[in-house]
Structure formats: structure tokens, C-alpha cells
Design a protein that fits this description.
The protein is mainly β. It contains no helices and eleven strands. The strands form two sheets. Strands 2, 4, 5, 6, 9, 10 and 11 form a seven-stranded mixed sheet that branches. It has a four-stranded antiparallel sheet with strand order 1-3-8-7, with no helix packed on it. The N and C termini lie far apart (40 Å). The relative contact order is 0.32. The mean pLDDT is 95.
Length: 117
């Protein structure tokens, strides 16, 4: 099993920055990919940023150049550094792990990010 706990959300003004953290525990050796997703009210959950454990990353077009996903293996933590935040970035942000040879999936509980104009 893999367990995920997000933190770092909050209220920030447009143009500001936040760093989200996802603490990972359990069978961390079996993780294949990690990702940050977000869901705004009335919208589907969407991929924001993903990272393969060997290091390659991908981003939604809406956040390219503003958000950065990274991993601190020593701390078993995945980060999402968010800069130049916009009101449309307001959402609940979730951390996701894909692990094991069977493609098992774990989600965190989510952390609210609110960007005021």
C-alpha cells in the first residue's frame, strides 16, 4: 500500500506563490509515477503535473512555466511549486501515486488552494 498526505494549501492573492507537499509512505519502492491533480467546483478532476520516478515531467498547458513538480527522495515527499497564481487556479489539489506492477492507484485527501483577485 501507498499512503499520501497533502499539505500547503491556503489563500493567496493573484500573482503570489504556494508550495504544496505530498508526504508519501508505505511501499514507496513500488511507485511508478506521481502526479498532482486539481478539481474546481463543477469541474472534472484534471492533471496539473506528473513525474515519472526516473525524473521526466509533464504539465498541463495552463500551468506550464508557472508550476514545477519535484521529488525529494530522502524525505519521501513530492512538491508542487506554484507561482504567478491566478484565480482560475483555485481548486482542491490532490496528490496521486501509481504503484506496483498492477497499476494500483492511491490518492491523497486533497488540499484547498484559493487565489483571490
Amino acid at each position: 500500500q501507498v499512503q499520501l498526505v497533502e499539505s500547503g494549501g491556503g489563500l493567496v492573492q493573484a500573482g503570489g506563490s504556494l508550495r504544496l507537499s505530498c508526504a508519501v509512505s508505505g511501499s514507496t519502492f513500488s511507485i511508478k509515477t506521481m502526479g498532482w491533480y486539481r478539481q474546481a467546483p463543477g469541474n472534472q478532476r484534471e492533471l496539473v503535473a506528473g513525474i515519472v520516478m526516473r525524473g521526466s515531467t509533464n504539465y498541463a498547458d495552463s500551468v506550464k512555466g508557472r508550476f514545477t513538480i519535484s521529488i525529494d527522495s530522502a524525505k519521501n515527499t513530492v512538491y508542487l511549486q506554484m507561482s504567478s497564481l491566478k484565480p482560475e487556479d483555485t481548486a482542491v489539489y490532490y496528490c496521486k501515486a501509481v504503484w506496483s506492477d498492477y497499476g494500483s492507484v492511491s490518492w491523497g485527501q486533497g488540499t484547498q488552494v484559493t487565489v483571490s483577485s
